[in-house]
Amino acid sequence: IEMEREARLLLEELEERYDIPVAGTQRIIGHGKLREEVVYSVVKKVHGQNFESLIESDEVELTEAIKDKIERHFLLLVRYLIDKYKNKKKYLNDIVKNNQYVMGTYSPNNQDEQEIYLVDIGSQETKEVVNGDVELFNEGLEYNLMVLVRGMIKAEKMVGKQFNEPRQLLKDFFLSISKELPESIAGYLNLN
Length: 192
Hints:
With 192 residues, the protein is an alpha+beta fold.
């Protein structure tokens, strides 16, 4: 229960401080089959398309405004994770996969003001930033950045352009922590 309270505060921070839209949620504490306390999340319906499906589709034509929102989405997530790393703050561990988002609106009649909402909120795990004793790709913050980069690569291909600002932030970050990167990521960031 305490972890859920902490996650709730971090979800609020995600939206208020980092400007990443989170679908409205309510947490309900109940009991599971074995009478243990469990927390259920009720997520407000976002009318739209799963973000993973959207960026993998060959049939979707994107306006420049939507392309800009997609790039901004990745920029905000990169900033969030790097900020948490640099400041050694707790962070939400499970928010970087493209399939956890929906591009849409709360109203099916108003598709003009689409946003990319985090909708797969579930039971969020929070993690501490640990430097030094954790391997780079061992389910830590750096691993989340790698997952994010893979999603960004897919989105760039679909949109047809490089996301220069998030790429530069990532490049600067990885150079600053002096860790060896997988060839695919190093190549993506022009570090090899």
